[in-house]
Amino acid sequence: MKKHIFTAVLISGLVCSSLASCTLETYESTTPRSANWSVSPPTNAPDNNNAQAADTQQAPANNNDQQVQQQAAAPAQQAPQSQQTPQAPEGTQAQTAAPAQQAPAVQPPKSDPPEVTASPAQQQQKAAANNYSEYVPIAKNIMNSLDVLDTIAGGSNVSIDGSDTIQDNGHTYSKVLDYRFSSINDVTSFVNTLVCGDLVYRYSGLYTGDTPTFKDFNGSLYYLNETRGCGFGYQGDPAIISASGGSFSFNVQIATGGGVKTFEVNAVNDGGTWKACSFNYT
After folding, report:
1. 266 vs 246: CA distance, rounded Å
2. Residue 250: phi, psi to the nearest 5?
3. Confidence check: pLDDT of 121 > 50
4. Alpha-carbon distance values, 7 to 10, 18, 69 (Å)
5. Composition bias, kind Low complexity: at what positions (predicted)?
6. What is the model's pTM?
7. Domain annotation for the chain: domains and CATH numbers
8. Coil, strand, or helix at residue 157?
9. What kind and span of H or E run contains 60?
10. What is the C-alpha separation between 192 and 237, in angstroms, rounded?
């Protein structure tokens, strides 16, 4: 009986001591350096599984809070970037704005100006202003031809033999040695080559009339060797007044005994040759 009582007391003491103390530590590895010692938690310690579940439930909440905070902070962080738009220099902005300010000042005319018909005098001046350049060399040739013809009519510019002379009605004629003239026909052809129209009549005195400039004596041509006023003292280049088809007009300043005058010449294309047909002084 006592033996059973002792045994029961001993078993009760062992059970109580086991409940009041920790469980025996166990060794899970054979290597001392990698040993993993585990300690059994006390009876009143909180359940690790419940704690981990609570932490797992709080984690999404924390993550959600962080995402909300990041989304709220994102516009605030992006706002300065949107304000960092580069601005053009003030000088460039002024130049860019200038055309927009000037554009309204340009306005199309409300109506076309009326056409004005030029008077004949204005048309003539306009033609002169156009300066028909292709006629200028022709005009210069005509001026030279007229000057040559006029000096011959005036008693010079012909080669003669002063020792071989003939008296005719009080005038002295000298024998012609000029290669251009050997007969009256040569003189007539020369005049018609240089001029036409009214000027042919004007210079016909070279070979016709009571006292012609050239005259035949005994089959030889003689020249009236008497100096007379002749030639044109041109002052500058010709100015073309008008041109139409086979004719044109020009003028040039000349020096005369009465001062400088305007010498106006009308020319025509006679059989492919430009000739002076008339002239006058103004």
Report:
1. 11
2. -145, 165
3. yes
4. 5, 17, 68
5. 41-105
6. 0.55
7. 130-281 (3.10.450.420)
8. coil
9. helix 48-82
10. 25
